[in-house]
Design brief:
Strand content: 5-15%
Structural class: alpha/beta
Order of helices and strands: HEHHEHHEHEHEHHHHHHHH
Strand order of the largest sheet: 2-3-4-1-5
Number of strands: 5
CATH class of the largest domain: Alpha Beta
Distance between the termini: 51 Å
Shape: globular
Radius of gyration: 22 Å
Length: about 350
């Protein structure tokens, strides 16, 4: 099955297309933004655009390069992302390539609608060596090579791997004339400074409501979401995703987010200060911002459900309180986007929720 189309990001795509036409696209890019907004899909689109040989509007979707790219089988479009640690402590380049061929095929079988990698998966030194090796080769089919490295913050430092790391940094700094490298990350602060200093960063925003509705209407999406037992209502899905389609595919993370959100609501509904402190503590440190943001999005969903339930039973007072509580969550989201501690944001939010819901 081909990759699902790119939804949203029309402005960025136009910028990239213009830069390619002018010969001004940087050799090494970093696409960063919220988790699940389609950064890897956008990077693959960029790779397809760079390799396309069709006439007229590009990518044409019809030429050999486009067909290979959309099928995930183009030998010059390398898609790298976190994988389980190899059982062999020092796998060969061929072993790494075979593993990624299988992994990409698995993602393609789901039209590119895949769950985020588990915390145990990473981009290990053997993969870095394979990337450096492939970059040194001539293109197999197209006129250039493109490397898309998703979740690049998962590159794992390993003792004795300095040579591979230095070779990769050199590749980023001075990619061959026929090579483009596109890193993606939801946590740019977790990337090594030596990596960040060698790439041009581009922020990828959340999708608009109209773009999200177009995504949800894609024929490949409803069956995938149904298999994850997600809410069937489009409005609930929109609130849960918060402009990030990939958030809907993170079922285990979503379950955790809903559990955290319910615990926050329970803590806010009582008068036990110790419970509020415990609820704030479980939000983790600033290194767990992704999970904290998911919990806030889930909390928004639960509060909107409370608003609707209160209106259904003609309880205007409860509906107003839940609405004010939802506004407090939106303010907490703004704070969470900065450097504020998730625990501090949570504790402040719980006090506001208590006042709104009493």
């Amino acid at each position: 099955m081909p990759l699902i189309p790119v939804y949203g990001h029309a402005t960025l795509r136009a910028r990239f297309a213009s830069a390619i036409e002018r010969g001004a696209l940087p050799g090494s890019l970093l696409l960063h933004g919220p988790a699940g907004v389609g950064k890897q899909r956008l990077a693959l689109w960029l790779g397809q655009r760079l390799l396309c040989t069709g006439a007229g509007s590009r990518p044409c979707g019809e030429c050999q390069n486009c067909r290979f790219a959309l099928a995930g089988t183009h030998p010059d479009l390398h898609w790298i992302f976190p994988r389980p640690r190899p059982k062999d402590s020092d796998p060969s380049v061929a072993d790494v390539e075979a593993d990624y061929a299988d992994a990409v095929a698995e993602r393609m079988a789901a039209s590119g609608l895949y769950a985020p990698p588990s915390g145990a998966e990473g981009i290990f030194v053997a993969t870095v060596r394979a990337v450096v090796h492939a970059a040194a080769l001539a293109p197999a089919v197209a006129h250039r090579k493109v490397f898309v490295i998703g979740d690049a913050e998962r590159m794992v430092s390993q003792e004795g791997a300095d040579q591979a790391a230095n070779a990769f940094l050199k590749l980023l700094e001075e990619p061959p004339e026929n090579t483009n490298i596109v890193l993606t990350t939801s946590e740019p602060g977790a990337l090594l400074p030596t990596v960040r200093s060698r790439v041009i960063a581009v922020r990828v925003p959340r999708l608009t409501e109209a773009e999200m509705r177009a995504f949800l209407a894609d024929p490949a999406v409803p069956p995938r979401l149904a298999a994850l037992s997600l809410p069937a209502g489009a409005d609930d899905l929109l609130r849960l995703a918060d402009g990030a389609p990939g958030a809907l595919l993170a079922r285990s993370a979503m379950d955790d987010a809903l559990a955290r959100a319910r615990r926050m609501l329970d803590a806010a509904s009582g008068h036990d200060r110790a419970e509020r402190l415990r609820a704030a503590f479980v939000q983790g440190t600033s290194g767990a911002r992704g999970a904290f943001s998911d919990a806030l999005n889930a909390l928004t969903l639960l509060l909107h459900q409370q608003v609707r339930a209160a209106l259904d039973r003609d309880d205007a007072r409860a509906a107003l309180g839940a609405s004010r509580a939802a506004d407090a969550v939106e303010r907490a989201k703004e704070s969470a986007q900065g450097n504020a501690s998730p625990q501090l944001v949570t504790f402040t939010l719980l006090r506001e929720l208590e006042a709104a819901l009493r």
